[in-house]
User: Fold GDSL esterase/lipase from Riccia fluitans.
Amino acid sequence: MTANTRMAMGTLRLLAFCMGLFFVLSPARCDSTEFDTIIQGVTEGRTFTLGMFVFGDSVLDAGTNNYFPSLLKANFKPYGQTAFSKPTGRFTNGKTYADFFADNLRVKSPEPYLARTGTFSVNYASGGSGLLRTTNAANQVIPFPDQLLQFAQTRLTMIQTLNSEKLVQLVLSKSLFLINIGGNDLVTYFFDPSPGKPPLDVFIANLTGEIEKSVRVLYQAGGRKFMLLGLGPIGCIPAVLAGLQIPDGKCVEPANDVARVFNAALEELVLQKLPKMFKDIQAIVGRPFDILRPLADHGEAQGFTEGVKACCGYGLYNAEVQCGLAPDKILNPPYNVCKNVDAYLFWDYFHPTERVYSIGAQQFWNGGLDAVAPMNLRALMEL
Ligand SMILES: *[C@@H]1O[C@H](CO)[C@@H](O)[C@H](O)[C@H]1NC(C)=O
Assistant:
């Protein structure tokens, strides 16, 4: 690269960054102070994140399901009470991994696509969704393949706005693509009693094959930096224990085994296959199983005195009815809400508390190979 090209690239990057901020935040935020900071950053050779695009299910949903008649919602009390003082549609008491990563990356927390005010920090994740269109179709969710179509629409808007596909490619190559998907497909598979269902390894190969196809689509659109999250210990989810009427609060190991097999296949895809298939791709895989399982087994040392029961809900393990709903499933008390949510691993029948997401996010951001491979998120975004 000649000095001139480098300078041109630098200007392009500044321009892209400022334009990105223009739409992500507000024109006022791209002021001279911020401009100076960016110039300093570029001069020092620091890299920075231009955008953030989030795909998947309720682990990352920031309110998508509020905006169409889904039967899987979390936009009522007491969801969101810890971080937002109001329900947002997030399926926890506060922030998710996506929110914590946005804080780390100093970008605006990605907004639901259906309620977006900008173009460079968008969240397509839909609670209940899976890779397969059939997963939770009766509950009305936005399946993963349709989330990709929504991203394609976003990208068209970007091209119109920046009036340059090259610039859009550049912005996307400096953006984070965060994906958490597969859990709902596998929980559905686990509880499917039909004798004709495919063997687990065949089913999982299909799921990871679908993920591979999706990464190809996002790569061709310009994405280079990907983080895929593995599955947590789904056999320790209160709804799984309650669904099987487990009396002793012990995790359901056959369900955890499903997660282990999926995680191994996902890791092979991310760590072995993707780098061979796609030039310059930088993909990392998060290992929530290895972070959360020890907390489920002996979290007392870290203040998690309740690792089985959901903080909020009703019935066995507070997990037979969704948090915020009465036993007859209308919106209203009586439901149970714990007093000290930070002592709980689970907020509701399916989802961790904000404190658990916070611990996981910190590990993914800054942690070692026990949490994220082949490098952590901070290293990925500094590349
Ligand atoms: C997964 O299974 C579906 C339904 O049988 C099929 O249409 C799809 O092509 C499969 N995907 C892969 C990657 O094998």
